[in-house]
Amino acid sequence: MIICILTYVSSGHYALWKEGIEHGDISLRNLMWDPFLKVGILNDFDLINIFGEDSKGGRRTGTIAFMALQLIKPRVKNPRRFYRHDVESLIWVLIWICLYFSGSDDIPQGMEEEDVGEQISLLQEWKTADTRRAYQVRFSFLSFLKTFLPCKAFKELRPLTIKLGTWVKQMNFEDETVENFDSMDRKEEVEAIHKWIVDIIKEYESSN
Fold first, then answer.
1. End-to-end CA distance of the chain, in Å?
2. β-strand 39-42 against 31-34: which pairing, if any?
3. Distances from the Cα of 100 to the Cα of 20, 40, 83, 108, 122, angstroms
4. Are 9 and 42 in contact (CB under 8 A)?
5. Quick one: which of 146, 191, 159, 179 has its CA closest to 70?
6. Which of 41, 137, 184, 193 could pair with 32 in a Cys bridge, judged by C-beta atoms 3.0 to 4.6 Å apart?
7. With contact defined as beta carbons under 8 Å apart, do 121 and 55 qualify?
8. Alpha carbon distances (Å) from 67 to 34, 60, 147, 185
9. Which residues contact 83 (CB under 8 A, 6 or more apart)?
10. What are phi and psi of 72, to 5 degrees?
């Protein structure tokens, strides 16, 4: 079901962005599943921005726990939002689910503190409302992306999570990767990133 939500939401979000509608708040709370239509739904358009309009005045909008790191980076004022930032938020939601999700905010059973003490510590601070600390926590997590312990319910998502998370790491550790996307115009960036994420999900589905 998680993969279905990702597929439908990424496709719907892509279609909206192409039309100039920027959602601006991809978060766990705003991703839903319709059990009757069996489709994923992107909910809550309170913070949308229409491309070309300066209605937000450059403010950082979104749920801090899932916002792209470039948007909450300390000492960066009025950051420009790109399509890749919303895609990064979607990936952070997947990472959160794979690491932590148990239907509540409790640490999932089976994650013994002595085995994953550093991971537990970061998870407990993940949802801080302090943008500076939120940046530090998730930036630190990227350093040991390939060694994290997934929660038991979603351990099969680990390979996909690592692959998508590695892209997030490149976007925040490798200036060359960012410069490559910055050199594209809006349409090129959207098409390139959407094709990439769709291909990654299809590859994962075909291998399972």
1. 14
2. antiparallel
3. 33, 20, 26, 6, 11
4. yes
5. 179
6. 41
7. no
8. 24, 9, 23, 22
9. 17, 186, 189, 190, 193, 194
10. -115, 10
* Residues present in the chain in total: 208
Domains of the chain by start residue, with CATH:
2-102+114-206 (1.10.510.10)
Residues 116-128 have pLDDT tens digits of: 566 667 777 888 8
Q: Contact at 8 Å (CB) between 69 and 139?
A: yes
Rounded Cα distance between 110 and 152, Å, is 8
pLDDT digits (tens, 9 = 90+) for 10-44: 888 888 888 888 888 888 888 888 888 778 888 87
Express each pLDDT in 43-89 by its tens digit. 877 777 777 555 444 555 788 989 999 999 887 777 788 899 999 99
- Closest-CA residue to 125 (of 143, 110, 109, 107): 107
